[in-house]
Write a structure and sequence with these properties.
By secondary structure, the protein is mostly helical. Helices cover 67% and strands 0% of the residues.
Length: 147
């Protein structure tokens, strides 16, 4: 059965991957339309002078992979650039964990249920969302000094 026919069949199971991709696109479009329609709005979060670790990793990846074109006088990405980007990955992961934990906390404080959060994260159950929040909170909370 073709993909198009599956979507028309009311008895065919839903394609979770396709639904997630559609929600991802819809999420990007919603935020872009509401909070990033102008250059000023889009630039308010980035530092105009210094790359943050996430931007640096993305830049090296895009240049090395061919998704971004280098400037005419720009040096090609070399092994040291790749190693530098890899060095930043743990920092990017820690920042993302803290960002996710903060967003989950905000969502709960604004009344979202664990089920709604699970849906947003692409998780199957409210329990999975709660457990994810607990793991993130443990990883991102400051270590207490030993006495």
């Amino acid at each position: 059965m073709s993909d198009a026919r599956q979507t028309e069949d009311p008895f065919a199971p839903p394609d979770a991957g396709r639904a997630r991709a559609q929600r991802t696109y819809a999420a990007l479009m919603r935020i872009a339309e509401r909070h990033a329609t102008t250059d000023e709005q889009r630039r308010r979060w980035s530092n105009p002078s210094v790359l943050d670790p996430y931007e640096a990793v993305c830049l090296v990846t895009a240049l090395a992979g061919g998704a971004a074109l280098p400037a005419p006088d720009e040096e090609r990405v070399d092994q040291a650039d790749l190693t530098a980007a890899l060095t930043l990955i743990p920092h990017v992961r820690a920042e993302l964990d803290a960002l996710e934990a903060g967003l989950l906390d905000l969502a709960r404080n604004r009344g979202l249920t664990w089920q709604a959060i699970a849906f947003g994260l692409g998780l199957g159950t409210a329990q999975a969302a709660r457990q994810r929040f607990e793991r993130l909170t443990e990883r991102t909370s400051p270590a207490t000094p030993a006495e």
